Amino acid sequence: MPVASSILTIFGDGWQEFIDPIDVFKEIEHSKQNKMKISEALEKAGYGEDLEKRAEEGPEKEFDHDRIVVSQTRAGQEEHSANNNSVQKSISGKWDERLFKAVNDSSYVPEIFKTLRSRILHPLSGEAIPKTILITSAIPREGKSFVAANLGISLAHGLDQHSLLVDCDLRKPAMAKMFGLDNSPGLVDYLRDGVALSKLIQKTPIAALSVLTSGIPPENPAELLGSSKMSALVEELSSRYDDRIIIFDSPPMLVAAEASVLAGQVDAMVLVVRQSTSGKAQIQKLIDIVGTERILGIVFNDQKTNLLQKRIIKGYASNHGAYYE
Predict the structure, then answer these.
(1) Which of 74, 99, 199, 294 is 20–30 Å from 117 (CA)?
(2) pLDDT band for position 242 (cuts 50, 70, 90)
(3) For residues 279-285, average pLDDT
(4) Are the beta carbons of 81 and 71 closer than 8 angstroms?
(5) What is the pLDDT of residue 2?
(6) Is residue 184 a contact partner of residue 218, using CB atoms and an 8 Å limit?
(7) Where do the domains of the chain lie, and which CATH numbers do they carry?
(8) In what side-by-side order are the strands of the sheet with 295-303?
(9) Is the entire prediction scored with pTM above 0.85?
């Protein structure tokens, strides 16, 4: 399957598309130059003499999709923590707070994943719809689990689609806590002990979305994911569930050897890149490993925007359907 013709970008407060996937490198390395070009164009359009000053105010407090979690303090108030690397349950004890926007039509997040969903269900090449999709990144903390979970939700909200999320990150699983599910038993129990899939796949409040959690982290994750039984599982899920698209949340490709083995067993891949996290060399190495023909698209996550850009995005939304509100 050929590489997608554009890159989906997730902002802290908006989104955009790039026509050429290789531009992700330029965007990472030359974000300051891009902001200057935007500012110059807007100034010519008559946005005022104070444009430069406003543009230099810098980014506001950023929404980090992979790090900001919501917990409950002893006083019962919400407290945001940008340094906690674990995925925590929401205050409700069910869903992670970050997934709420994916089911809230008034936020911009659903529109982002509807775009990605459209690219999956309507391939530009005219080829068959991929049934098994791997979501991965070069290194940890780039937001791959966030993207996998929200893509699963978006697909499940489609008219004719069901989705199954499989948490293959056996070292640092995230899906169970994101959806408020029991992490064990899960994938590990299938691979190690042969527990039937029917006893492992869990339902969610969304009727068309189910989850196969990882199970308790094992001592030999690389061996389990690289086993013939894992390969057979991918094939079994694809053939058994004709009405489902199976999404695999994979370990980061450059830090877990088993991820590259898993990549060779699926129909397509989505790469997640966070601005200022992965460098050009790391992204290029990742693409070299999997090959461009297997990449369905690249999600450029958490692009920083300054105050002026944020106002422009929201202003456009207010005049065109409020997609970003």
Answers:
(1) 199
(2) confident
(3) 86
(4) yes
(5) 38
(6) no
(7) 7-33+96-304 (3.40.50.300)
(8) 15-18, 7-11, 295-303, 268-274, 132-137, 244-249, 162-167, 209-212, 202-203
(9) no
